[in-house]
Amino acid sequence: MTGQARPAPSPAVIAVVIHDDRALLVRRANPPDAGLWGFPGGKIDYGETVAAAALRELQEETGVQAEAREIITALDIFDHDDSGRLLYHYILLAVRCEYVSGVPEAGDDALEARWIPITELDPRRLPMSADVDVIARRAHQMKA
């Protein structure tokens, strides 16, 4: 094999919290998806479990407390520069979390944090990361 070594994909999590038919979302301050609404999340630290990472990211970005349940799905997230060169590849694990307490307040790399009714999750009306609406509905069905 020739050429430059490529970095391995980075494992990351999103905390999917559904409460009272609403999804807890943050508006991202940084790439990828800066300015878009999505679930709180980020990279998994070395030696950290998937569940612990989801709860840590949830706390850092929203101040909300929850209990991690099961993994809903896994996604490949690719971030490219303007020329199309791949900058980052994240393997994103969506973890369903059960709300315990707290009022969402934007922290860490979030511009805003708030509960949004699942019925309002439509990418044509709300600028959001890929599949936020689909994942929220799946998590809502799992809870029922």
Summarize the structure.
This protein has helices at 50-62, 132-143, and strands at 10-19, 22-28, 37-38, 41-43, 65-80, 86-101, 110-117. The model has no long low-confidence stretch (mean pLDDT 93).
| Annotation, overall tally of beta strands | 7
User: Order of helices and strands, N to C?
Assistant: EEEEHEEEH
Number of helices: 2
- What is the class in the CATH system? Alpha Beta
Shape type = globular
Q: How much is the average pLDDT? A: 93
CATH architecture: Alpha-Beta Complex
Q: CATH superfamily, called what?
A: Nucleoside Triphosphate Pyrophosphohydrolase
Classify the helix fraction into a percent range. Answer: 10-25%
Structural class, judged by helices and strands? alpha+beta
Low-confidence stretches: none
**Biggest sheet, open or closed, and with what strands and sense?**
7 strands, mixed
Looking at the structure, the CATH topology is: Nucleoside Triphosphate Pyrophosphohydrolase
The number of domains: 1
